Amino acid sequence: MPVDRVRVAALPAMVLTMALLHAPAGLAQAPAAPHVPTIDELVELGSLSAPTISPDGRWVAFEEAITDWERDAFLTQLFVADTSTGTVTQLTRGKESAGDIEWSPDSRWITFIRPIDGKPAIYAIRPDGGEAVVLSKHDGPIVNHEWAPDGRTIVYIALPDDSAAEKARKEALGAFTVVRKDYQFAQLWTLDAVEALVAPARGRQRTRGNDRHVSTFDVSPDSTRLVFQAARTPDLVDGGTTDLFLLDLATDHVTPLVTQAGPDTNPRWSPEGTRIAFQSPMGVDGYFHANGRVAIVPATGGTPVSVTDTLDEDAQLVAWTRTGLYVSALQKTATHLFRVDPAARTLTRVSSPDALAMQAPTMSGDGTALAYVAGSATTLPEVYTTAIATFVPKALTTRSTRLAAWTLGIRELVTWKSQDGEVIEGVLIKPRDYDPSKTYPLLCVIHGGPTGIDRPQVIDADLWAARGALVLKVNYRGSAGYGERFRRLNVLNLGVGDAWDVLSGIDALVAKKMVDPTRLGCMGWSQGGYISAFLTTSTTRFRSFSVGAGISNWATYYYNTDITPFTIQYLDADPGTDPEIYRKTSPMSYVMGARTPTLIQHGEFDRRVPIANAYELRQGLQDRGVPVEMIVYKGFGHGITKPKSMRATMQHNLLWFNHHIFGDPAPDFTTAPPKPAAPATQP
């Protein structure tokens, strides 16, 4: 299920594939004998994100999430790389995470957000090191921030400090929440950076009221105006009401700029300050699965014009500099950077090679240099920088050296035809010692979204590949990267068409005599969990399933989720209007035929896919006499975000499939696992 399709990024599968991570930049790796990585080694890899190039192109700051077993947390710290020397320096440490990296216009300061006594505040630090200083003195939590081009003003978004009012209500009436009424509306503030560098300063509030919730903004080149996006409320059900507004910093007057149907987001000023680019479905119904476009509107107002119609994918606005307007987009399992000609409405790809899987691109102030993260089938994600004109990337991090110590599977892209003739692509992971004369057990690992995508990148389901299994990751209909028509193929056909794509992929591998059809498993999280639930009730071809945070009944989901518009856009009705489409696409409609042992995993406080779905599936399977286990991860929502519980979800899946596929002893999930053994040395 989507995080929210206002442009939504699909939630990654919260299963063994959480290991799409990498080692902290500042930690040297000791040599080790080649071995299959353990679960703890995978969890300890941490993660890298948010590369942010300085305006002068000299530095790239980025975030590293480092595993802290003692605190049971992933702590995000900031690092900076010198693009000329490649030297990487860790900037922040301590018990609190840091994030939301921004550069001052003169590239002398990195500012970021980190909590003080649990309340996020703005800090500043020099890229060449030193102590971080606190800039903001704000009563409410700060959400994000940005420097104005004048180098003196910092604009930030903050939530109100309602602690006194909440305390008074609780003392009088006890604790309660009024559903879809108890909101905190984020507002825009400004801070004088010159004063704040001397001593923490209070900001000046620029927007007010409870008629809009601000979430993203951009400052005009002359620092006199802001363009910002705001929705009717902070509620995800109102994500489609997001519009664009202009704020005059001299008067605090707000003027609507773009108010068309659907979410209009991520505004960016043109270099000369006369136009604004933004992302939008351009009023098209079904924005959860329609192409997101980049459009341009005059800063004085007018009719927006889409300039990326020739790109049959979601266009993500990267930057508008004097060298051009740039967007990124998926191209099947790759991601590339494009330069847009706004007048001709044409796009030119500027990145290479063809298989590049770029993430989070960011550009220098003059538009000549680029930084991004990218991984591949043989390398971990690294931070890269390049001149855009030549596009010869230089790696600034060296995480992939760790792979020399690990025995990993071999990855390749495969295609096949589904039941209705649709061509489906997937990632096939083979054991390192794959023997084409043998048949192997197969585990299908299904991504979330549904507009997610699986790529041939390390690290992934290598523990099963090392055990002697093939792993198939299906980019089923509805996945991103293959164009709008493909993304719409599971509208009114959720589960049904998705199952065709998974089963036909298995059939294709069986026909090639690669897979033992009697030893099949399937798992996924979120939408991948839903597809696994659909398959466990509608086919008996598998030996076992794992359903992570999956939907079992679309009516149950619709009435309980925090994002009901998603359901309406894919099923075209609510359960009262069209009960048949809800019956057709719900796993519980087929539960009478269920026979396959199923593990159910779910977060206790999941609002995206409420846990009622898990209990409903568990009881339905138990009533049929199907072996079923259900594990509830306490304190979590839709994702598992702490190391120990991440270890648990991975361990539970390993034990479950190793029993049903490889014949290991039946797991007892009520007991703690034995202490992990040291990695076995392989010849």
CATH superfamily of the domain at 407-662: Alpha/Beta hydrolase fold, catalytic domain
Computed Rg: 25 Å
Largest sheet: 8 strands, mixed
User: What are the segments in which pLDDT stays under 50 over at least 5 consecutive residues?
Assistant: 3-30, 676-683
Number of DSSP-assigned strands: 36
| Physical arrangement of strands within the biggest beta sheet | 29-30-32-31-33-34-35-36
How much helix, percentage-wise, in residues?
Answer: 10-25%
- What is the arithmetic mean of pLDDT? 92
Number of helices: 12
**Name of the top-level CATH class of the domain at 407-662:** Alpha Beta
**Molecular shape:** globular
Task: Please identify the structural class as seen in this structure.
Answer: alpha+beta
- Our estimate of the beta-strand percent is 25-35%
What is the CATH third-level topology name of the domain at 407-662?
Answer: Rossmann fold
Task: Give the CATH architecture of the domain at 407-662.
Answer: 3-Layer(aba) Sandwich
The CA-CA distance between the termini, in Å, is 43 Å
Lay out the secondary structure:
Layout: H1 39-43, E1 47-53, E2 59-68, E3 73-82, E4 88-90, E5 99-103, E6 110-116, E7 119-125, E8 133-134, E9 142-147, E10 153-158, H2 163-173, E11 187-192, H3 193-196, E12 204-205, E13 213-219, E14 225-231, E15 243-248, E16 253-258, E17 265-269, E18 275-280, E19 293-298, E20 305-306, E21 316-321, E22 324-331, E23 334-341, E24 346-349, E25 358-363, E26 369-374, E27 382-387, E28 394-395, E29 410-417, E30 423-430, E31 440-446, H4 462-467, E32 470-475, H5 484-487, H6 496-511, E33 515-525, H7 527-538, E34 544-548, H8 554-560, H9 564-571, H10 579-585, E35 598-603, H11 612-623, E36 628-633, H12 643-662
Parallel strand pairs: 31-32, 31-33, 33-34, 34-35, 35-36
Antiparallel strand pairs: 1-2, 2-3, 3-4, 5-6, 6-7, 7-8, 9-10, 10-11, 11-12, 13-14, 14-15, 15-16, 17-18, 18-19, 19-20, 21-22, 22-23, 23-24, 25-26, 26-27, 27-28, 29-30, 30-32
